[in-house]
């Protein structure tokens, strides 16, 4: 009987996952897998350019066979804008963390959406500046302990940024959603969100954005199991999953 592969590594995964440099329990590899699978399914591998700012998620540029760029922290959005305008027929993905997109790159993020830039943005939200020491970020939850909020985030430090909801109000945004990979059901839903976002770029509609809620056991000082529970019980109630904008025209 002929055997058929029903599950395995994404075709675009160029190296064994064991070679990746993420901390144990990090969900970046799951998010990377979704991105690779959708690129493959949409048939855009040959014209994809991945722009990944310096942060925890830099492993995505180390494990794929597509063209990739690696700008400084916070500059991925502007670099992606330049590349897309220079090479409009290419498929551009800007990939960054919450510190990268919601903090240092926030101005570039909003303006890219206002200009209806025709590329896709993926933001991975683990609630703090994980790579630089665990400092408070715009997405840090109320009461969450970080290295710069040792007693927990309070109102004087501001409130958690809800990036998909915010960018959905911008006319140049074609698609905005928030997903997670904390269980199989959410993994599959989030993959659908990414596929919709990428399709908006293929259809040349406007700016498309997906936020991932991601566990960070090391930065949160938790076991992997505890970090998944934190995502379910703390992050998702504050930052609900779902689609916030999905349009086929910007009129």
What do these coordinates show?
By secondary structure, this protein is an alpha/beta fold. It has a single domain (23-155, 164-246), classed as Thiamin diphosphate (ThDP)-binding fold, Pyr/PP domains (Rossmann fold, 3-Layer(aba) Sandwich). Helix content is 36%, strand content 18%. The chain has nine helices and nine strands. The strands form two sheets. A seven-stranded mixed beta sheet has the order 2-1-3-4-8-7-9, with helices on both faces. A two-stranded antiparallel ribbon has the order 5-6. Helix 1 (28-42) packs across helix 7 and helix 4 (98-104) packs across helix 5. The protein is globular. The chain starts with 27 loop residues before the first helix and ends in a 5-residue tail after the last strand.
Q: Estimate the helix proportion, in percent.
A: 25-40%
Fourth CATH level, the homologous superfamily: Thiamin diphosphate (ThDP)-binding fold, Pyr/PP domains
Shape: globular
Name the helix and strand elements from N-terminus to C-terminus, one letter apiece. Answer: HEHEHEHHEEEHEHEHHE
Q: What's the pLDDT, averaged over the residues?
A: 89
Largest sheet: 7 strands, mixed
The CATH architecture comes to: 3-Layer(aba) Sandwich
């Amino acid at each position: 009987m002929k055997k058929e592969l029903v599950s395995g590594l994404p075709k675009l995964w160029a190296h064994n996952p064991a070679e990746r440099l993420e901390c144990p329990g990090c969900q970046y590899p799951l998010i990377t897998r979704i991105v690779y699978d959708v690129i493959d399914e949409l048939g855009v591998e040959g014209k994809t350019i991945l722009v990944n700012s310096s942060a925890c998620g830099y492993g995505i540029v180390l494990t794929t066979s597509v063209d990739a760029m690696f700008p400084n922290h916070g500059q991925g959005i502007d670099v992606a804008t330049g590349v897309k305008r220079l090479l409009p027929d290419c498929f551009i993905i800007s990939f960054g963390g919450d510190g990268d997109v919601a903090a240092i790159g926030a101005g570039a993020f909003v303006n890219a959406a206002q200009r209806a830039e025709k590329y896709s943005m993926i933001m991975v939200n683990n609630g703090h500046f994980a790579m630089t020491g665990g400092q408070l970020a715009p997405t840090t939850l109320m009461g969450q302990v970080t290295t710069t909020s040792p007693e927990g985030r309070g109102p004087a430090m501001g409130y958690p940024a809800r990036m998909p909801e915010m960018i959905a109000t911008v006319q140049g945004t074609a698609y905005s959603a928030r997903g997670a990979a904390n269980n199989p059901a959410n993994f599959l839903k989030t993959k659908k969100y990414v596929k919709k976002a990428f399709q908006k770029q293929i259809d040349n509609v406007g700016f498309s954005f997906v936020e991932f809620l991601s566990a960070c056991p090391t930065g949160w000082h938790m076991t992997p199991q505890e970090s998944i529970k934190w995502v379910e019980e703390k992050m998702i109630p504050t930052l609900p999953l779902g689609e916030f904008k999905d349009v086929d025209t910007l009129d």
